[in-house]
Amino acid sequence: MKKTITLMVLAILFFACKSKSGTTSTTVKNEPVASTKLDRSSQVAIKGDWVITSVTYPGSDYIKVSSFQIADSKCFVGSTWHFISNNNKGSMALTKSDCPAFSSPIVWSVNKEGQFVLKIVDAGEKAKKVRDGYVLRVANQTETSFQLVDIINVGGQNKEVTYQFEKTN
């Protein structure tokens, strides 16, 4: 019985993959991705300084998720994010001890479908040269908080990873 449970947990860990989505107006798995029509009101509401207060997903006690191909998702708790809405730029930084130190400029937008499009840009690199990015869903947006929801594949099933943002200023 213990061997079966151990094998199941190992299989889940092995197949837990972070989805990586393109940020152009193409299709992924026959679904439209990242419309170019922007939702200016959502973008203005996100403007400012934010911190991720929690990262939640089913099976988080057993499964490690690598967020944005940077670090374990739990390392993003306490990370700081700065969003500038008039030019869709900003920055993010991981600040948690026992996690890799990381900071980077970002380019972001929210489209009319409620999708948050994110590109993590190396210093000195232009966003148009960055081909890879992430498409997440904006949820539960208020003046002081919002969520970004990512879809990952765990053992052939789609699961949601929810990043809870709280305004700091």
From TrEMBL:
Signal peptide (from-to): 1-21
Keywords of this entry: Signal
Listed name of the protein: Uncharacterized protein
Source domain of life: Bacteria
